[in-house]
Specification:
CATH architecture of the largest domain: Beta Barrel
Strand order of the largest sheet: 1-10-13-12-11-14
Oligomer: single chain
Radius of gyration: 47 Å
Distance between the termini: 27 Å
Shape: rod-shaped
Largest sheet: 6 strands, antiparallel, barrel
Helix content: 40-55%
CATH superfamily of the largest domain: Efflux pump adaptor protein, beta barrel domain
Number of helices: 9
CATH class of the largest domain: Mainly Beta
Order of helices and strands: HHHHEEEEEHHEEEEEEEEEHHH
Number of strands: 14
Length: 410
């Protein structure tokens, strides 16, 4: 309607003025309700053609959409293991900080495993003290065995020296007994040496390895115990958290709730524009938006991202071929817009529905030396008609509360 009114000012109105003041035809006489078409046919046809052309230029170069939303990502509150809820530390709706405990699962099994691992480490520490005592005992046995070997060796040497000086003075049987005794005591010395080495190896290698394994088991048990305390991964707010003690949570089937990160849905506005605007939408375009949760407010924005893919064309490979007719609704081009000024989205509730306009700017092309006068004028016209969409957006922002509260029947 606004476009038709504007076009009539340069088509129907001059035609009427010509008929009235040049041709002398009077309203109500020659120009009546029944003769309007015949008298003003040139102005009416020109107005309609100009209005269609104007609407086409406005909607193509300055696209608008009502499919704009402040999307935000939620974080599911999911434990790493299945379990029964023992304690809940937050209410139905409450703010949380990173690291805060949201709820705790029953951890009697994990606590028992932790106590077992702790006891195992204490047992190994006691075994290390016992191994040190065994080393000292083996050292004493080794010294005793060395003395016995030395004594038997000395006696054997004496007997052999006497036998050598005066054959027959020492019975051969005594020398053989001493040789057997020396061999036995040498065996005892070797056994004592091996016992000491075994105790040293047990103290220096075996028990430390067992202790390291026990400490790893203790760390694993501590990790399993910590997993029963479900904590907030980020600062945010827990909403609609109806979990209660006794509930069963399963990471594969049932999550415990959702966590909305702090600042979610307050950075960018996601808008879906028609596919025909694919060649017009560019990063850096100036845009405006008005949201239903913050009425009578126009938010200056800028296009920061234009998605190269249309979601409706996505398919997942499987055992059946995809029929193009399955995509009944044509998809839109996803565009991200951020406020130009800091705090531009303050007061807008995340998830709110919005109306957005984007405006094409040809200033650089107009200022270029290779742009001719006619083309520059046409580009000026394209930029200038963007004011029509800006006016429409402000009219929509003005009427939005009335349309929502009164005309919708709520």
């Amino acid at each position: 309607m606004l476009e038709i009114i504007l076009c009539s000012l340069v088509t129907i109105l001059p035609d009427y003025l010509y008929r009235r003041y040049v041709q002398g035809k009077r309203l109500g006489r020659e120009i009546t309700l029944f003769s309007v078409w015949f008298e003003l046919r040139f102005g009416i046809i020109t107005c309609l053609m100009l209005a269609v052309a104007l609407i086409t230029v406005i909607f193509y170069f300055h696209p608008s959409t009502t499919s704009a939303t402040l999307f935000y990502r939620t974080v599911p509150i999911v434990p790493e293991a299945t379990g029964r809820v023992a304690e809940v530390h937050v209410e139905f709706s409450a703010p949380v900080k990173k690291g805060d405990v949201i709820f705790r699962l029953d951890n009697s099994k994990q606590q028992a495993a932790l106590r077992t691992a702790t006891s195992k480490i204490a047992e190994i520490d006691a075994a290390m003290l016992s191994a040190q005592a065994d080393i000292m005992k083996a050292e004493g046995q080794l010294q005793e065995a060395k003395g016995s070997v030395q004594q038997a060796s000395d006696e054997l040497d004496v007997k052999r020296e006497l036998q050598k000086r005066n054959p027959g003075i020492v019975p051969q049987r005594d020398i053989e007994k001493l040789e057997v005794a020396l061999a036995g005591r040498q065996g005892s010395l070797d056994a004592a040496t091996a016992s000491k080495q075994s105790a040293m190896v047990r103290l220096s290698a075996l028990l430390p390895a067992e202790k390291a394994s026990a400490e790893a088991a203790l760390a694993e048990a501590q990790v399993d115990l910590d997993k029963t305390y479900i904590r907030a991964g980020v600062d945010g707010r827990v909403e609609q958290f109806g979990l209660r003690p006794g509930d069963i949570v399963n990471p594969m089937i049932r999550s415990a709730g959702i966590l909305i990160p702090e600042g979610a849905g307050r950075r960018a506005l996601a808008a879906g524009f028609g596919q025909i605007e694919g060649q017009v939408m560019k990063v850096g375009m100036v845009a405006e938006a008005t949201c239903i949760s913050k009425p009578w407010t126009i938010i200056p924005m800028v296009v920061t991202s234009v998605q190269d893919y249309i979601a409706s064309g996505q398919f997942r490979g499987g055992e059946q071929l995809v029929d193009a007719q399955q995509a009944v609704r044509p998809g839109t081009i996803l565009v991200l817009m951020e406020p130009i000024y800091k705090g531009g989205l303050e007061g807008v509730t995340p998830g709110s529905s919005c109306i957005a306009n984007a405006y094409t700017s040809n200033h650089d092309r107009i200022a270029a030396k290779e742009t001719g006068a006619f083309k520059g004028f046409a580009l000026h016209v394209v930029d200038a008609v963007g004011i029509v969409h800006a006016m429409l957006l402000r009219i929509q922002a003005l009427l939005l509360p009335i349309k929502t509260l009164v005309l919708s029947g709520h």
